[in-house]
Amino acid sequence: MFFSPLYTGVLEVQIGLDPEAAVEAPGPRALPGRVVVYGTSITQGGCASRPGMCYTNILARRLNMEFINLGFSGSGQGEPEVARLVAQVSEPRLFVMDYEANCGDPDRMRRTLPEFVDIVRGNHPGLPVLVISQIQNPLSTYSEPFLRSSERLRQIQRGFVEARREAGDKAIYFFDASGVLGEDFDECTVDGVHPTDLGFLRMACGFEPVFREILRL
Predict the structure, then answer these.
(1) Is 28 helix (H, G, I), strand (E, B) or coil?
(2) How far apart (Å, rounded) are the C-alpha atoms in residues 157 and 133?
(3) SS percent in the chain: helix, strand, coil, step 5
(4) Confidence (pTM)
(5) What is the pLDDT of residues 46-79, one digit of tens each?
(6) 129 pairs with which residues across the strands?
């Protein structure tokens, strides 16, 4: 399995092989289609030590599925213009929204989340959608305004999903990621925000059962 750089464009790829190595066609995926993940610099993989340690790539290996990582460092705020581009990805099997960390303003989340989902679903009716809240942030331990904002953002996302499900949409899900790094979450990031390899591993371990349940793997 080959993972391209997380923050550098690829112009040329060269692969070295041992003389006795064999080149064979890859085996079948667990399921056809792609898992499409939209989000922030955390989603993109900052600050993994190597591409394979981004949580989406860990999950790609564990689930044996193709993942399309649409993490946008410093952006990823649920813009409808981006949603229209994301909706053009072919053969999605699951669409994941993981952009709370860059949304910031609860009003923006309340405005952008329904529109983004509707735009993507417009091209892919019935596509399963998973909304994931932000992982732990140390600011929540000592900043009351930040804690209140985080709780409000989480409530908005959960409430949106619950309202859609009550209206009959059983293909939309919410996962609260505020505890996936564990009690020692301060050991899992470079700067209190962006995960290390340990942080990404814990994210993958926390997300894997949810992905498996939705994808029925």
Answers:
(1) coil
(2) 7
(3) 45, 15, 45
(4) 0.95
(5) 999 999 999 999 999 999 999 999 999 988 999 9
(6) 95, 172
